[in-house]
């Protein structure tokens, strides 16, 4: 029996999923696997675990497990469910990569999908769990897909052994054919329970023009206009990344200042005409030409149905805007703010990335402003070159975003692009597994004794080409046995020729990092190099240690501040790069120096701020270092490594050893400087040639090796920005 508060009880009754409790539970009783589809906000994540709990799935020391693709969701949903059920957090708990509050009393466990995959490696049958819920399956994250493939085998195995287990797949969209109509995955298609969301109508307004560059500026204009002219109701703005989110928040706060004291005043004078232009101006002078357009305008239909409030008091521009950012890496306390009602007399405005699209439901949103774009990491299939690109989102995502406006009453969605542009969007986003290299997954699967990865029941299989590339890399790293040589073969034939895992491969699979880095960890025992390798691997895995000061400044003042901080970081980089032999370790030595110095200073925000380091990244590196240190000790107890907060710089001899280890891991990422005599085309000036690409690649001006330009280097990755730049470069001896 669950003892919920009256308030929670009342809120629950409004959720559409509650009406389907019996249907869902009956389907679960009668089928090993069930798919539940329901709009975001219909109550799937918060309620379905409670249904299962009340139906007894957590009895007899068993656990209800729920996986989320995002850490944010795992943490905040576990807190929410604990609160709704009036149970302590040691009973409704969460586990994400580095932290959690799981205890022996845990009955409901929210976790990231990566955490569950690791648990499958420890206990393939997941015996503690009576049911696993795969949440947000529509996102098609790589781990979600792999888990569904694995669970499609684990569930029948458990049933055969007389320890029944259930699988629930939950999706915010109706597009679930990849799961239900995939014979390889489920021979009998699982039943689909649809939850009809109580969705209010959302009027979609397209822009007449589509700004190609300054869509944040456009989002700013639109948000200001909505706030000045339209009736109360929260505004949710979708942008693509953290930097954009912060920049828009700053501009909006400046335009509509929010001060605690002014809210109090607002409250007292609520019956008077609320005009207080001394305190607030609708738009600061430098922020655009507000006379140019009187209305929100610019919609295709002329903006006639813009529903300017009937009551002029409702459209008073002096109401402060309560602006909150929301993105995955934001601290949890900050994230939690979006769920609380805004201070009285203010309008809520959340500026968010994709997180707000389906995993979190923000209450009280009536207006959505959608830039129509999304930032994703792209990989070149052949060369592995990666780049972050902002591209158009899919029609399905754009519709999800619009839907956020109709949760509590009828709403409006302002799309900052034309309907013609929308028509050109792809219908759905591609599954992540088809867009990235898969060597890490292949290694994990081999470790699970799935030898023929091609035969694995992927909801959407990666290409044969990607599988072959992964096996080849793993063979070259010594993680898989060499295949027998046998003439010419097609990719598919080669993919079918699966290579068994080696003991080294098993050790590598135990480290939660990419196989190239896992190899370095496995070799790190020599010359007491392990603490350094652990630090470097942590830094390479977390990436983006350094602040990016190359962004354009908004004012002279900001520009001079940026210049100062940039200069300081450059100076620190030189210091961290060390001297003599250390210099050859290049950017990896800089990372090592930065990690060492930051740890020595206690990893404080102040130290990071002063020295151009990203505190979030440094905190994560610190956690990963201790996690990897534990993992190394578990695989190889005799080495007895520990995290030394006063790590001395490596000796000359150790530096040499480190370079060899780095080369062993990054051997396929070798580049040679183009010799003067080969240089027929000026585009090859100071360029390097890699084994995989015809085009030149370069050492970035920020790199420690930019001035030296050694003949041979290895690199962590190639990132395409204004040019093809190698990142994480270190020098290799010419033989
Ligand atoms: P779904 O998983 O179907 O998208 P959820 O179960 O996440 O739906 O959300 C159901 C309702 O619970 C939503 O109206 C949401 O606003 C509310 N809710 C979720 N988390 C919180 C929270 N931390 N605080 C307050 N309300 C919340
Ligand atoms: Mg959900």
From TrEMBL:
Q: Might you report a single GO cellular component term?
A: nucleolus
In short, the EC number is: 3.6.4.13
**What family does the Swiss-Prot or TrEMBL record give for this protein?**
Belongs to the DEAD box helicase family. DEAH subfamily.
**UniProt keyword ATP-binding present:** yes
**UniProt entry tagged with the keyword ATP-binding:** yes
User: Catalysed reaction(s)?
Assistant: ATP + H2O = ADP + phosphate + H(+)
Kindly state which keywords UniProt assigns to this record, in alphabetical order. ATP-binding, Helicase, Hydrolase, Nucleotide-binding
Q: Where is the composition biased (Acidic residues)?
A: 286-312
Q: What is the lineage of its organism?
A: Eukaryota, Metazoa, Chordata, Craniata, Vertebrata
Which molecular function GO terms apply here?
ATP binding; hydrolase activity; RNA binding; RNA helicase activity
Q: Which residues of the full protein are shown?
A: 233 to 967 of 1061
Please report the name of this protein according to its UniProt entry.
RNA helicase
Locate the Helicase C-terminal domain: which residues?
Answer: 211-449
GO BP of this protein: maturation of SSU-rRNA from tricistronic rRNA transcript (SSU-rRNA, 5.8S rRNA, LSU-rRNA)
Where is the segment annotated Disordered?
280-312
Organism, as annotated: Fundulus heteroclitus (Killifish)
Q: Where is the Helicase ATP-binding domain?
A: 25-192
């Amino acid at each position: 029996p669950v003892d919920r508060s009256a308030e929670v009880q009342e809120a629950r009754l409004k959720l559409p999923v509650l009406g389907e409790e019996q249907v869902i539970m009956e389907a679960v009783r009668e089928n090993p696997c069930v798919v539940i589809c329901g709009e975001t906000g219909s109550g799937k994540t918060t309620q379905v675990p409670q249904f299962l709990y009340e139906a007894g799935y957590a009895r007899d020391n068993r656990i209800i497990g729920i996986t989320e693709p995002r850490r944010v969701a795992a943490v905040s949903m576990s807190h929410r469910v604990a609160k709704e059920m009036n149970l302590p957090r040691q009973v409704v708990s969460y586990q994400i990569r580095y932290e959690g509050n799981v205890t022996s009393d845990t009955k409901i466990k929210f976790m990231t999908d990566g955490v569950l995959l690791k648990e499958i490696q420890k206990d393939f049958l997941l015996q503690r769990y009576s049911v696993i819920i795969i949440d947000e399956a529509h996102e098609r994250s790589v781990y979600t897909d792999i888990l569904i493939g694995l669970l499609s085998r684990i569930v029948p195995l458990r049933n055969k052994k007389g320890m029944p287990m259930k699988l629930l797949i939950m999706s915010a969209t109706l597009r679930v054919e990849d799961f239900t109509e995939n014979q390889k995955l489920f021979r009998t298609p699982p039943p689909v329970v649809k939850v009809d969301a109580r969705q209010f109508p959302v009027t979609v307004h397209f822009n007449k023009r589509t700004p190609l560059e300054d869509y944040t500026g456009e989002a700013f204009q639109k948000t200001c206009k909505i706030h000045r002219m339209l009736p109360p109701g929260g505004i949710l703005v979708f942008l693509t990344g953290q930097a954009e989110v912060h920049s828009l928040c700053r501009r909006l706060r400046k335009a509509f200042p929010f001060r605690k004291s002014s809210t109090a005043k607002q409250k007292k004078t609520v019956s008077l005409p609320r005009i207080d232009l001394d305190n607030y101006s609708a738009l600061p002078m430098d922020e655009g030409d507000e006379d140019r357009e009187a209305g929100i305008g610019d919609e295709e239909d002329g903006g006639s149905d813009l529903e300017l409030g009937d009551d002029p008091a409702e459209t008073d521009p002096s109401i402060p805007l309560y602006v909150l950012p929301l993105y995955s890496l934001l601290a949890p306390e900050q994230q939690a703010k979006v769920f609380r009602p805004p201070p009285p007399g203010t309008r809520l405005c959340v500026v968010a990335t994709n997180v707000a699209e389906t995993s979190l439901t923000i209450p009280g949103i009536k207006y959505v402003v959608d830039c129509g774009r999304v930032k994703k990491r792209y990989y070149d299939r052949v060369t592995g070159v990666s780049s972050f690109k902002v591209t158009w989102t899919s029609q399905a995502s754009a519709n999800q975003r619009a839907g956020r406006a109709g949760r509590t009453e009828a709403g409006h969605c302002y799309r900052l692009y034309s309907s013609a542009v929308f028509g050109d969007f792809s219908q759905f986003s591609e599954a992540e597994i088809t867009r990235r290299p898969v060597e890490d997954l292949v290694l994990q699967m081999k470790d699970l004794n799935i030898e023929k990865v091609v035969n694995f029941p992927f909801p959407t299989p990666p290409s044969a080409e990607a599988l072959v590339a992964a096996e080849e890399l793993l063979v070259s790293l010594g993680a898989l046995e060499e295949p027998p040589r046998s003439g010419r073969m097609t990719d598919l034939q080669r993919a079918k020729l699966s290579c068994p895992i080696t003991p080294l491969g098993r050790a590598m699979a135990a480290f939660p990092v990419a196989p190239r880095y896992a190899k370095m960890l496995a070799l790190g025992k020599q010359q007491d190099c392990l603490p350094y390798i652990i630090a470097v691997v942590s830094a390479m895995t977390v990436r983006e240690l350094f602040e990016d000061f190359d962004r354009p400044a908004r004012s002279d003042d900001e520009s001079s501040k940026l210049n100062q901080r940039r200069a300081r970081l450059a100076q620190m980089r030189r210091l961290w790069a060390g001297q003599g032999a250390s210099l050859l370790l290049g950017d990896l030595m800089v990372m090592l120096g930065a990690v060492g110095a930051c740890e020595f200073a206690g990893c404080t925000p102040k130290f990071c701020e002063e020295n151009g380091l990203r505190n979030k990244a440094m905190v994560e590196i610190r956690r990963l270092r201790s996690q990897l240190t534990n993992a190394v000790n578990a695989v190889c107890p005799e080495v007895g490594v520990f995290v030394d907060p006063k790590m001395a710089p490596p000796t000359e001899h150790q530096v040499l050893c480190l370079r060899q280890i780095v080369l062993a891991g990054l051997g396929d990422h070798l580049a040679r400087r183009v010799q003067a005599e080969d240089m027929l085309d000026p585009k090859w000036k100071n360029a390097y040639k890699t084994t995989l690409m015809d085009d030149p690649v370069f050492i970035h001006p920020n790199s420690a090796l930019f001035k030296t330009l050694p003949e041979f280097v290895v690199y962590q990755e190639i990132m395409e920005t204004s040019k093809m730049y190698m990142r994480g470069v270190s020098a290799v001896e010419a033989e």
